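To whoever picks this up:

The nightly regression suite flagged Acetate--CoA ligase as changed. Nothing in the input moved, so I suspect the structure step. Input below, exactly as stored in the fixture:
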Amino acid sequence: MTSGDEPADDRSHSDHATVEPPEWFVEQANVSDPAVYDRFEREWPDCWREAASLLDWDEPFEGVLCGAEGPPFEWFPGGRLNASYNCIDRHLPERKNQLALVWEGHLGESRTYTYLELYREVNAFAAALRELGVGEDDVVTIYLPMVPELPVAMLACARLGVAHNVVFAGFSADALATRMERADSEYLVTCDGYYRRGSAVAQKNKADNARIAVEQDVSVVVLDRLGHDIHLGDDYVDYHDLLAAHEGAEVEPISRAAGDPLFRIYTSGTTGRPKAVTHTTGGYLAHVAWTSQAVLDIKPEDTYWCSADIGWITGHSYIVYGPLALGTTTVLYNGTPDHPEKDRLWELVEQYAVDVFYTAPTAVRAFMKWGKEHPAKHDLSSLRLLGTVGEPMDARAWEWYREHIGGGECPVVDTWWQTETGAILVSTLPGVDEMKPGVAGKPLPGVEATVVDRSGADVKPNEAGELVVTQPWPGMPRSLLDGTDWGVPPSDGEWRYRPEDSASMDGDGYVTFLGRIDDAINVAGRRFSTMELESTVAGVDGVAEAAVVGANHETTGTAIYAFVSPEDGYGKNGLRADIEGAIVEAIGGIARPEEIVFTPDLPKTRSGKVMRRLLTAVANDEDLGDTSALRNPEILGEIQSSTAGE
Ligand code: 6R9
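Regenerated output under the current build:
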């Protein structure tokens, strides 16, 4: 193996500053006994009984895991349960009048649902779906923005034991059609339209086009959101008419086997073609409930807010299923963080006295860019814990988040997981572990993961390699359970799952994520981690956000291009010198960027991930290809003209 194949990143991460969780937090934390790690390891896989015991089972499971050596795996064999019952009915005796959902809609529009109100609406809608013909093995596609009817429809499907297939509301008609067709879904729940940044989006037109495009016949339920006189036509039914017709109906929750599908979802489209993932009723629900409790420290009396969209896995797991399984109050926000003003989120945290707030690093970097004066306008003292998910969280953003949102006090959990994993696999436990800003944390108790080189051997501490998960986990999807997909049996025959993320692990077992494995940049035979370059650039004062890609270069093969979005009030020239200086210092002159391109924003998918493929195309002056997954396509023109002008 030549030196060019070796990752260039072998710098020590063990010198990271550590932050102890404050005593007041530990005292009240759901999980605060450090012995949890040893106990889970000793008792694996039985330890996961603790997660399953957070749920009510119609039939107890006979074992925890079948097939520990390799697929097919079966979590909680023999167990039967219903997810809607677990998220609603079982809470009624104790808290029927407690809020289950708090919804904040477009400019001042808001609605709340107690657990009893949620029970009634879910039952009525489940009865309506059944009358429309929805039955076993059907897939109901839900194409709704962040409105309460979205979790209602999901839970109504779960009640009937029917899989839902939520498609992010911002997706195009084509994307919806592909996802419906691949799921062979004959039912669609959508709306006439909705408001985004003050203007109406015509949702039903997109749904109509998708309906025409798919081969199967589709029955459509339309929720009236805009109050326009909607023309319904054949096979379209009005959501409110359906509810009225089934008011007071009660639908017996259908008992499901632990491994039965709860829902389908597609992975976010940062790379390649979207992949369908099916999650299970028992294993998934147990895993999201346990991580909601142990990592997000959610308590029934909390008001909890995850600012993701339910259209992504984060919203499924940590807006709907995890929080509701624990009987807490979960906030749904149908809006953007800077509309009408840049303090919108903090206004809501204050108004609802939010206890736990979970968002994405890209959002934190935006807050940082807008300035600390926005959160400073509000009383955020109700916050107890902050979390992030979706991308590596650099130390500077971590510190800013803790300081300006968390009052310098709240623990911050950087949680690593994927659509495929269903629930969090790597994070600190906020009531147990010290935190290391810029480092995600350890594999959770009960999760076995390590960092390996190309040959599959463990790398040394702090050396970069690929993260592999070496034992099954309850939230694993069907294709991994039955071994039909990406369970990689390597030459030694041991099962492992490859998330395709590069990472390093320090001597304490803490994992630093370095990006997707295909994100490395090879300059003159040396490999640099995209994420390492990016976090160096993002660590420079005045840089709000940065993306780094490799572009073709005559002499070095590849050259580094840095796309930088500056904080307000910073000049390009000073920043350029500071960025170069930081890279030279952190990595060396060989990593000095060929180009530093300043832009007001980076091209992002609708789930907030930077689309590096497009930046690579810009850097190489190539055709941009399909940009339909972008939230802000207009930014590409601006970036192209600034690279051309360099
Ligand atoms: C939940 C979600 C998964 C990919 C994953 C990784 C990146 C997620 C991260 C993180 C570093 C974290 N990712 N959390 N990278 N630190 N805390 O985001 O699912 O949309 O499927 O994306 O996101 O690269 O492989 P999904």
